[in-house]
Amino acid sequence: MARTLIILGIILIVVGLAWPWISKLGLGRLPGDIIIQRENFSFYFPITTAIIVSVLLSVVLWFFNR
Prior knowledge:
Layout: H1 2-17, H2 19-22, E1 34-37, E2 42-45, H3 47-65
Antiparallel strand pairs: 1-2
């Protein structure tokens, strides 16, 4: 469990450092992401982005468990 938490921490640090480049990919602004903005209210549900991230994580985890 400790090794998993350390690896997860390292991954989060790398993603945090690479965030300026990752944000330019357009994730979060894909067709299918639901954005509702009103006067005093904002709702954001990134369904398409979540599906893409889920598929990518599944492939990566499948590759490492193989």
